[in-house]
Amino acid sequence: MDIITMASNAPIIRQIAWISVVPQLAMMALLMAGAYLAGVEQFIVVGAAVYLAISFALRRLISRDHRSGFALLRQGMYADAHPYFQRSYEFFTRHRWLDDWRFITLLSSSRISYREMALLNVAYCYGQTGDGPRSRDYYQRVIQEFPGSGIAKSSLRMFEASKGISEPGAPPPRLEGPSSVS
C-alpha cells in the first residue's frame, strides 16, 4: 500500500495487486512483438508507447467520472466531487465485468475495485464537508459490499475513536480487529 499526498494535501491510498502486472507485461510484450514482426526498428519503444497510449485512452474514456471526481478532489471541491464518484460507482455497477477484469479492460493494477474506490471517495468527500453521519453511512455501505475493505474499517474505527474526543472523561472505545489497514 502506498500513501501519496496530492497537491491539496489530501492523502491518497493506492493498493496494488502485483499479480495483475503479469498480464499487463504480457500485453506489452505482445505489442512489442507485433512491432518487431512489422519491421519496426525500435520495436521496444514503439510497443511500450502503444501500450501507454492504450492505457491512457482506456482510463480516460471508461473511468471518466472517476477521473473528474479526482480532479475536483485535488482542488478541495469535495461537495462537487462526490456526485462524480457516485456516477462512477453506478457505471461500474452496471458494467461490473469492466471492473472485475480491470487489469485487462483498464490496464489497472489496483487491488480494490473502482466500485469500492468510488464509495470510499464518496464517504471521504462527505467527511471533508463536515457531514459525518453520511460519511459513516457510506463507510458502512462499503463494508457491506466489500467486507474486506481495510480502508473502510480503519475509517470507521476513526469515527469510533473520535467519539471519545467530544465526550470529556469518557473511557476510550473498545475496538475489535486489527488496528492497521492492510
Structure description:
The chain is mostly helical. It has a two-stranded antiparallel ribbon with strand order 1-2. Helices cover 66% and strands 4% of the residues. Mean pLDDT is 81; it is low at 1-8 and 175-182. It has a single domain (2-164), classed as Serine Threonine Protein Phosphatase 5, Tetratricopeptide repeat (Alpha Horseshoe), CATH 1.25.40.10. The longest helix has 20 residues, at 43-62. The termini are close together. The chain has nine helices and two strands; from the N terminus they run E-E-H-H-H-H-H-H-H-H-H. Helix 3 packs antiparallel against helix 4. The chain is elongated and about 65 Å long.
In short:
The protein has 182 residues and is mainly alpha-helical. The chain has a single domain (2-164), classed as Alpha Horseshoe (Serine Threonine Protein Phosphatase 5, Tetratricopeptide repeat).
SSE blueprint and pairings:
Blueprint: E1 2-5, E2 11-14, H1 21-37, H2 43-62, H3 64-74, H4 78-94, H5 96-100, H6 102-105, H7 114-128, H8 132-145, H9 150-166
Antiparallel strand pairs: 1-2
Helix pairs in contact: 1-2, 3-4, 4-7, 7-8, 8-9
